[in-house]
Amino acid sequence: MKCRDLIKQLETIAPVHYAEKWDNVGLIVGDEEQQVNKVLIALDPSTEVIEQAIEQQCDMIITHHPLIFSPMKKITSNDFIGRRILNMMNHSIAYYAMHTNMDIAIMADEAAAMIGLKDTIALEPIESNNLHVGIGRFGKLTRTITLLDLANEVKKQFHLDGVRVVGELTKDIKTVAISTGSGEDFIEHAIERGADVLITGDIRHHKALDAIERNLCIIDAGHYGTERFMVEWLAAHLDVSNVTAMVAKEQSPFKNI
To answer: Which among 205, 208, 202, 207 has a CA at the least distance from the CA of 221?
Structure first.
């Protein structure tokens, strides 16, 4: 399969026009005419992931988080981003990122479904006339449960060792906002929707204090923890009978000790 043909499929799954203006999605390194026989899918384009792709003789890497966000004037081996780019180029590995477009097109609904939300709408719609397209989801649980029970369900569904919880563990939870990745910017949206709890990652101390003061509980399942499922989902949904899709071995940079 040509790289451009695989790209067409990726952009059918997650249209690039969904991506935020500040984001950098699409083919970042490589040639659209390149032949692709083996793909490695990962959350991050880390040095370890690139080394796995080289070892497995992959022709393409697909990640959620882009390697390049800000414009680069030079690509050299003097910095870690340049070294990664050069390493991929030297081994003829194409590199594609699907970030906020994937958040909107797939991950919001998938994350909501994982915890059993119904009657969902976007936490932050991107279209004024369509409340179902946007970042995150707000919805209702099928039954009222405690904050502790919901935290345990999040651990189970997202395959996590632990989560951070803000709020009284015995509080009844019925309405839920969820945003994968770094979601403290959506605290206000969650409150406006009337959520009892926001499930997300990367919540800072003072934001947590502000949220609980306004009667919004928080389940911080981590940036990595709330997004890792994207890798397995994409590997399972690529329709590439003549291309081998592999899942990278990676882990959160944070370690529990």
So the answer is: 202
Across-strand partners of 130?
127
185 appears as a binding residue in the annotation = no
What is the number of H-type helices and E-type strands within the chain? 10, 11
User: Cβ of 91: how many Cβ atoms within 10 Å?
Assistant: 14
DSSP string, 30-89: S-TTSB-SEEEEESS--HHHHHHHHHTT-SEEEESS-S--S--S---TTSHHHHHHHHHH
Is 99 marked as binding a ligand? no
Question: What is the tens place of the pLDDT at every residue in 101-137?
Answer: 999 999 999 999 999 999 999 999 998 789 999 999 9
Tokens found for residue 114 = 């994982």
Radius of gyration for the alpha carbons in the chain, expressed in angstroms and rounded: 19
The class (CATH top level) of 102-226 is: alpha beta
| Fold topology of 3-98 | 3.40.1390
Alpha helices in 91-180 (DSSP H): 100-102, 108-114, 147-157
The answer to whether the CB of 221 falls within 8 A of the CB of 163 is yes
**Would you kindly state where each structural domain of the chain is located, as residue ranges?**
3-98, 102-226
pLDDT at 255: 83
**Given its phi and psi angles, is residue 184 left (phi above 0), alpha (psi -120 to 50 degrees) or beta?**
alpha
64 known member of a binding site:
yes
Cα 41 to Cα 52: distance, rounded to the nearest angstrom: 11
235-256 pLDDT tens trace: 999 987 789 999 999 989 988 7
**Whole-angstrom Cα distance, residue 115 to residue 95?**
32
102-226 shares the fold of 3-98:
yes
DSSP state of 1: -
CA distances from 235 to 2, 58, 72, 170 (A): 18, 14, 30, 38
